[in-house]
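haha ok so turns out i had the wrong file open the whole time. this is the CORRECT one, sorry everyone. sequence first:
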Amino acid sequence: MHKSSWQSRRHRRRGQRHHAWFRRHGSNERNDAGAQQSPQGSSDGHGEAPSTSSTDGNSSVPDLPGYYFDPEKKRYFRLLPGHNNCNPLTKESIRQKEMERKRLKLLEEEKLQGKKIARLGFNTSSLLQKSKLGFLNATSYCRLAHELRVSCMQRKKVQIQSSDPSALASDQFNLIMADTNSDRLFTVNDVKVGGSKYGIISLHGLKTPTFRVHMHENLYFTNRKVNAMCWASLNHLDSHVLLCLMGIAETPGCATLLPTSLFVSNHAAGDRPGMLCSFRIPGAWSCAWSLNIQANNCFSTGLSRRVLVTSVVTGHRRSFGTSSDVLTQQFAVMAPLLFNGCRSGEIFAIDLRCQNQGKGWKATRLFHDSAVTSVQILQEEQCLMASDMAGTIKLWDLRTTKCIRQYSGHVNEYAHLPLHVHEEEGIVVAVGQDCYTRIWSLHDGQLLRTIPSPYPTSKADIPSVAFSSRLGGTQGAPGLLMAVRQDLYCFSYS
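then structure:
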């Protein structure tokens, strides 16, 4: 008994001396490492923080698993694996810090944006000179002039007037959508108490130097999420808004035709009220309104593994079975086709002349590697542009079913984000999941402009945008509208 106790005490004293030696040895190594790395840390003090513990390839700062070297403080910090600690340092927080630093830097550059150019060698004077010398035809000159003006757009905050100013200060913009003539903006706002409410903003007062608009609100309120929406031309052009509402609890989902005449002072005197109707449609992911004469007064909804084409007048429905969820849709105007983008990455067109029981209703089939979130048909209906959840944007030739151009730089991982194509100005606009608004040249895919959000990057504050060549109507000027949180901004051509 005494012998075993004596041996245990001897092993304990030996272990204490062993750990004390390692503490002294480890402390000397850390001090030596800190002395060696301090010049490198001071040289990187004003650069961007790395996303991991590694720095530039020329740096001598070693990678330590589980640690992050801060070049500003010139020391290592431990990456805590959990979130039960007070103020933990994680890879996510480091990435957020980097993104915020990049956003603030771009905001500073925005103040000098008027001196920047979209393409090297093309400023105002060189563009005019090349046009006079005959090096540019009229089409190329107009396209490059639009690109130059896009690169010089300045951000201005828009003053919104409303009968309820307190609501404007608390309600946040969720979605905005400009009509065909770009003189109205339909808005979906998240209400502080929960749910959504709708409004229409008149853009007639959107002129320099004062950007002032008026919000026409309505008492129509819903506690359900808006999955998709589009303008609908039932009585006249853009007379209604088609909304797809998600079902909650025992209340099923539905598609609602909301007449714009319900909004105060939004219609001409003597105009008869529009028809408000609702269709019970479970779980619609997308919707589209038909302007084709062969599917007059019809709309489509994309469901889980099914497409429904519904006639508003008769209520007759046609169902087309699919192999995946339909996340985006658009009708062609000249041809009786409905294009659909699926979660599986497939894009297919439904020939509306065929019956749903037939086998030949899939007219065109294209494929992406990820879920397709937006499809846009170009004016001549010979090309289609699509974006997916991998951040890929492709321009497809519908005659050869081949990709003819890609637009790089878009950021998306899983969000359902729209794509905006404007052929008159020759640009493509998309907002990424990183909250950056990017503008590309439709002609060759070059990235022309990257606009940071006025607020820190957040998955809940992704801006909603609308671009038009005539903001405020036929006499309006081209520009970009951006809605984020409670604010509305206008990037107008200078």
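The helical segments are 2-43, 91-110, 124-132, 138-151, 165-170.
again sry for the mixup
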